[in-house]
Design goal:
The protein is of the alpha/beta class. Helices cover about 40% and strands about 15% of the residues. The chain has seven helices and seven strands, in the order βαβαβαβαβααβαβ. It has a seven-stranded parallel beta sheet with strand order 3-2-1-4-5-6-7, with helices on both faces. α2 links the parallel β2 and β3. It is globular, with a radius of gyration of 18 Å. The termini are far apart.
Length: about 200
């Protein structure tokens, strides 16, 4: 029985990865339970076979509101997990990683972390007191996790050796039923970029 934990304020690549993970697990007769903040619920609710638990509202607009929303989500998650009988928790994105790392001693369900990019930048960031605190909390969760996965070697090159030793590279897959090479003449000077236009994406 697998628990997927995702806390996010917007839809993007990591949220899509979690969405695409669910169906293959269910086809293998693995029971999947999804834990999300209220804003994410709408994106997963079309799967009627999936057990979904809403953990409360989450915002990143204001640092104080963000802090209180995290505390509420943490407390709700802690109450729910005690009744689930999960074999493994899969955490995605920084907030989810920090929240479960904070309660893992009490829940005692092993967990793995999937890095999606921004977590590495945060771990290495000491520019202000808030980001430094988040960095400490992420490192704490990394240390306690059973396994860390990453889609690329580039992403973990700045990760500390203590965490690299339990990190496995699992590249993001491609659905070959939807995407395949076209039989066309190759154009010169064609640039393709898939991802957010942010510095860490190149």
């Amino acid at each position: 029985k697998l628990g997927l934990l995702l806390i996010s304020d917007r839809w993007g690549g990591a949220e899509e990865v979690v969405y695409q993970l669910i169906e293959p697990f269910m086809k293998e007769n693995i029971e999947v339970v999804l834990f999300v903040n209220d804003e994410m619920f709408q994106y997963y609710s079309n799967n009627k076979k999936l057990a979904i638990h809403k953990l409360g509202s989450y915002t990143e607009k204001n640092i104080f509101l963000k802090f209180f929303s995290i505390i509420k989500i943490r407390n709700n998650l802690k109450k729910l997990l005690g009744k689930q009988g999960l074999d493994l928790i899969h955490t995605n994105l920084g907030t989810s990683i920090i929240i479960y790392g904070n309660i893992s001693n009490k829940i005692k369900t092993p967990y793995l972390i999937t890095l999606h990019g921004s977590e590495i930048l945060t771990v290495c960031n000491r520019n202000n007191p808030y980001k430094y605190l988040v960095s400490i909390l992420l490192k704490h969760s990394f240390k306690k996790s059973g396994l860390i996965t990453s889609p690329s070697k580039w992403q973990i090159k700045s990760l500390q050796k203590a965490y690299k030793s339990k990190t496995r590279i699992i590249p993001n897959g491609i659905d070959t039923k939807r995407f395949r090479p076209l039989k066309t003449k190759e154009e010169k000077e064609v640039i393709l970029f898939a991802g957010q236009f942010v510095k860490m994406k190149g």
